[in-house]
Specification:
three-stranded antiparallel β-sheet; single chain; 25% strand
């Protein structure tokens, strides 16, 4: 049962995104935006491991964006298509602080 794993899970989870796009000054930029979440800290706070925490907190923040009237576009939208500013600010205050590092260029897979 995944619900029983929280107390036993040790270490950290890293969730991130590598984004490449055109800068306002022109030219291409690549950034790594990520969060590192500690399993044991999450368990002490909510009785669950970081995987559940990093799933639930963004969902709660998304609901808050709707309730605050920030995300009210008609139709069906992916959250990545909506204004990210308040969402990203709330991640920092709701237990999932993020960091940004500029990379030297696109990452090839």
């Amino acid at each position: 049962d995944p619900g029983d794993l929280g107390e036993q899970t040790k270490g950290k989870a890293c969730i991130g995104d590598i984004a490449t796009g055109e800068s306002q000054e022109g030219g291409e930029k690549t950034y790594y935006i990520y969060n590192i979440c500690d399993h044991e800290e999450c368990y002490r706070e909510v009785g669950s491991q970081a995987v559940s925490y990093t799933t639930g907190v963004p969902a709660m923040i998304g609901a808050a964006q709707v309730l605050k009237g920030n995300w009210v576009e008609p139709g069906v939208w992916n959250m990545e298509q909506l204004d990210p500013d308040d969402f990203m600010d709330m991640l920092n205050t709701q237990g999932l602080p993020w960091q940004v590092h500029e990379l030297g260029g696109p990452v090839e897979f």
